[in-house]
C-alpha cells in the first residue's frame, strides 16, 4: 500500500501555468536576431508543485520532455507545441535521483547539471562530485561513464561549482562533456570539449552550461555570464567538430548573443535541447530565488 501511494504521488500530473514573456524591452525589435529566430518565450509557474526549481538540463524523448533540477530531481513533462508556440507543459512524473541501490542521492552527490538522451536511457552530468552517469528513465543510476583522463583530477577544475556542467551523446563521437570553465593550466580564452579519447577546442566568451547536437559533426553550445546585479549575457555557439586544426582548435560560429545591456530580458539560461529540425528549447535556472524566473524559449537556427 505504501509503494502504491508513492507511485500515485510521483505520477500525479499537474500543468504549469504558461505566461507570455517578452525577451526584448523594445517590442519593435524583430524576432530574428543574428542567426536565431525566437518563436516563443514563456515564463513557467508551477503553482501546485512548489518544489520545481533550478531546472538546468533538458532532453527530448518520444515519451516527452525530461527536465533536470540542480536539486537532484528528474521530471517528465508532456509538452505541446502548436503553430510554433508553446501551448502546454504538463508534469507527468517527479523522481528523485537514486544510486544503484535505489538510495536517494545525498547532498554532496546530487548537484546534477545537464541531461542528454542515450539510447533508451539518459546521461546526467554532475559537478562538485564531478562525473557523468548513465541513468534509467526511472531515475536509477546504472553506471558511471569513463571520462577523458584530463577530467579525473578534481584539483584542475576552477572550483567546486565549476565542474561538469554539460553532457551530450553524439552518434559519431560518443559521449561528450565539458567543464563550465577551462581547466587550470589551459588558455582561458578557449573552451575544451572532451570525449573519452578525443578533445576539441573552440574560442568563446562565457561559461559552458549545456551541449546539444545539431548534426553528427556539429554541436550547439550554450554559454552564459550571469550576475543578478550587473550585465549578463547568453550565447549560442555552433562548433564544427570535423573542422579543426592540428592544435584541435575547431571552427565555431556565434549564432546569437543576448546581452542585457542591449535590452534583452534574460535570466540564467542553463539547458538546451533539440525538439525538431533546426528547432530547440532553452530553459533558465531560477536558482530557487524569488527574484528570478524559470523561462522556456523556443527558437530556430536559421542558417
Could you explain the architecture of this structure?
A hairpin with a 2-residue loop joins strand 3 and strand 4 (36-45). The N and C termini lie far apart (55 Å). Residues 1-12 have low confidence and may be disordered. Helix content is 3%, strand content 52%. The protein is mostly beta strands. It has a single domain (2-301), classed as Neuraminidase (6 Propeller), CATH 2.120.10. Strands 2, 3, 4, 21, 22 and 23 form a six-stranded antiparallel beta sheet that branches. It has a five-stranded antiparallel beta sheet with strand order 1-8-7-6-5, with no helix packed on it. Strands 9-10-11-12 form a four-stranded antiparallel beta sheet, with no helix packed on it. The longest helix has 9 residues, at 2-10. The chain is globular.
Number of helices: 1
Strand residue content? over 45%
Strand elements, count: 23
- Topology-level CATH name: Neuraminidase
Amount of helix:
under 10%
User: Which H/E pattern describes the elements?
Assistant: HEEEEEEEEEEEEEEEEEEEEEEE
Question: Tags for this entry?
Answer:
about 300 residues; mainly beta; Neuraminidase; 6-stranded antiparallel beta sheet; 5-stranded antiparallel beta sheet; about 50% strand; globular; disordered N terminus
Topology readout:
Layout: H1 2-10, E1 14-15, E2 17-20, E3 32-33, E4 36-45, E5 55-61, E6 64-69, E7 73-82, E8 85-96, E9 112-118, E10 121-126, E11 131-135, E12 141-144, E13 164-170, E14 174-179, E15 190-194, E16 199-203, E17 207-215, E18 218-225, E19 233-244, E20 250-259, E21 269-276, E22 279-284, E23 294-301
Antiparallel strand pairs: 1-8, 2-4, 3-4, 4-23, 5-6, 6-7, 7-8, 9-10, 10-11, 11-12, 13-14, 15-16, 17-18, 18-19, 19-20, 21-22, 22-23
Amino acid at each position: 500500500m505504501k509503494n502504491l501511494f508513492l507511485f500515485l504521488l510521483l505520477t500525479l500530473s499537474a500543468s504549469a501555468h504558461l505566461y507570455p514573456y517578452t525577451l526584448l524591452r523594445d517590442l519593435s525589435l524583430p524576432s530574428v536576431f543574428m542567426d536565431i529566430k525566437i518563436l516563443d518565450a514563456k515564463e513557467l509557474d508551477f503553482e501546485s508543485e512548489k518544489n520545481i526549481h533550478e531546472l538546468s538540463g533538458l532532453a527530448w524523448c518520444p515519451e516527452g520532455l525530461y527536465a533536470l533540477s540542480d536539486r537532484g530531481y528528474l521530471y517528465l513533462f508532456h509538452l505541446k507545441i502548436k503553430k510554433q508556440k508553446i501551448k502546454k507543459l504538463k508534469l507527468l512524473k517527479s523522481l528523485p535521483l537514486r544510486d544503484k541501490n535505489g538510495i536517494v542521492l545525498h547532498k554532496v552527490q546530487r548537484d546534477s547539471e545537464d541531461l542528454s538522451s542515450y539510447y533508451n536511457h539518459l546521461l546526467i552530468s554532475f559537478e562538485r562530485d564531478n562525473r557523468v552517469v548513465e541513468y534509467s528513465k526511472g531515475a536509477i543510476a546504472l553506471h558511471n561513464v569513463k571520462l577523458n583522463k584530463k577530467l579525473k583530477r578534481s584539483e584542475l577544475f576552477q572550483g567546486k561549482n565549476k565542474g561538469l556542467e554539460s553532457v551530450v551523446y553524439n552518434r559519431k563521437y560518443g559521449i561528450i562533456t565539458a567543464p563550465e570553465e577551462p581547466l587550470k593550466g589551459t588558455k582561458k580564452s578557449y573552451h575544451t570539449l572532451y570525449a573519452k579519447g578525443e578533445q576539441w577546442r573552440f574560442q568563446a566568451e562565457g561559461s559552458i552550461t549545456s551541449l546539444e547536437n545539431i548534426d553528427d559533426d556539429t554541436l550547439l553550445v550554450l554559454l552564459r555570464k550571469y550576475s543578478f546585479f550587473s550585465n549578463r549575457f547568453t550565447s549560442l555557439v555552433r562548433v564544427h567538430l570535423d573542422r579543426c586544426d592540428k592544435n584541435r582548435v575547431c571552427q565555431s560560429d556565434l549564432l546569437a548573443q543576448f546581452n542585457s545591456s542591449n535590452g534583452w530580458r534574460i535570466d540564467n539560461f542553463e539547458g538546451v535541447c533539440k525538439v525538431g529540425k533546426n528547432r530547440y528549447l532553452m530553459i533558465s535556472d531560477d536558482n530557487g530565488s524569488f527574484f528570478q524566473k524559470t523561462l522556456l524559449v523556443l527558437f530556430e537556427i536559421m542558417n
